[in-house]
Amino acid sequence: MNVQLRRSALHRASRLLLAACAGVALVACSTSPTGRSQLAFFPQGELNRMGLAAYEQMKEQTPATDSDAKRAYVQCITDALIAELDSRDQRRHDWEVTVFEDDAVNAFALPGGKMGVYTGLLDVADNQHQVATVMGHEIGHVLADHGNERMSTAFATSAGLQVVQIIGDDGSPQRAQILGLLGLGAQVGIMLPFSRTHEREADVIGLDLMARAGFDPQESVRLWQNMADASGGQPPEFLSTHPAHGTRIRNLQDHMPDAMEKYEAARQAGKRPQCSL
Fold this sequence. Notes:
By secondary structure, this protein is mainly alpha-helical. It has one domain. It is built from 13 helices and 5 strands. The chain has a 3-stranded mixed beta sheet, sandwiched between helices. Strands 1-2 form a two-stranded antiparallel ribbon.
């Protein structure tokens, strides 16, 4: 990083630290979409910029697919899901998805709405509903500001200056930890397990979202069964930072009655996505 860029990065990091300190002083809290109180020290704009930087880095490191069919398939599913967000969530995130040509069974979403789907996932997910399960789950992490909460928790339990160092220095060996906190996890080789609370919350938000968009919620259970079958005794990369599939399936089944009601209402309203490869 040249001197000018480094100074700019450190300036942004300093502002971020001051904002975070102000948040600590005010006991900054927010409320998740499920009504849970959470820490949220960091300004959304700063998180969005960090998410964009991480996204651009991922696009430099991993080639995007050259398959028009795969891009159109994933974009079709994305559009159907995003259309169900309220206007506030549509405005505060610049939603974008890239299909990466990689055998990893993986996907991610970053603050700011930047998403990635790996072609390996498309080999395991049998249909549009199952792909929507994973994408809805990842969108759920963004809507619930889990990246902010994870970074805020880390900030509250460690030295604030370390956060500045990590953010301000692209060459810092700790930078991958920040990317993991934002939501990249296995993609940067840092296994930071999502809490059970975050996973349950993302599952519920994603299940609700896919149902309202007209995707069959019951396929979510089949998707996780496929994930388990495809693991060959080892969890796919996507599951390496997530709870066991059995725990996830039980959580989904607990919320299935409500999701099915919303799914039937969506179908009656004419919402029947036709996304296919």
